[in-house]
Amino acid sequence: MLSFLARRIAAALGTLLLASVLVFLAVQALPGDVATQVLGKDATPDAVAALRGQLGLDRPAWERYTDWVGGALHGDFGTSLVTGKAVGGEVSAYLGNSALIAGITILFAVTGSIVLGVLAGLYRDRWPDHLISTVSLVGMSVPEFVVATVLVLCFSIALPWFPAVVLYGPDASVGQLLPAVWLPALALAVVMAAYIVRMARTSVIDVMASEYVTTARLKGLSTWRVVTRHALPGALLPTLHVIALNVAWLAGGVAVVENVFNYPGIGKLMLSSVQNRDLPVIQAIALVSSVVYVACNLAADLATMALNPKLRTRGRTR
Where in the cell is it found (predicted)? Predict the structure, then answer.
């Protein structure tokens, strides 16, 4: 178990190191000059050269990378080229707002999709299965911004229950943002849950046809006990990685939805940073997204090990 955990953590750290290199190289490869973008096209060559020296752009790339990674390990991502504020504090404010949406989305999408997937698998080829499968296919086919637009039309215009846009900035409190969180979270949950439902349904069908479930039924166990004690743990194993990938997808999917609702989250900050060519902020957001992705996959691996006794005892049986 310890060797399994050590290998997974080592792989996660190696992935983050590689991601940091790719993020840095990709941002540096963006067309145009940062100093010219900040000062404007009418800036003199001397002013551009001075700003490039101030920003350290005249230094070798490997020096800038090591300084950036070293600072990031201590929570220092540099200074924003647009606002002049510390990037770490600015990203944290927006990230906290996005975490509010992500938390609600994960809560409803994961729990709801597992329940629906189990029902579809248990009632295979009957009307609950057909209904759930059809709705999930629609959710997989429709982009999140279309779902968000439909939700605005239904629950902000036709039925004015929720605000269509957010008028607060990144420093808004949870109480101020809470009324506007539900529609973005629902839009993300619809798209996210569709993939988990399909995987959970397939897993339940496979597990219910297995020999150990058949044996449990022959022993006279109730359907509820067979599902909860025998089928569900086995069905969750292949579903965990789909859940992890979809949770990591929130880092990108939330950007589109936040832009629709004008929500002050990390996605909106990323779009504005790309438009303003604020490289330190772009690098910080990309690195944070990589950390979220790696952490989700690591959590899925650990959960798989916890649910699968074979992985915990593999090292002892050799």
Answer: Cell membrane
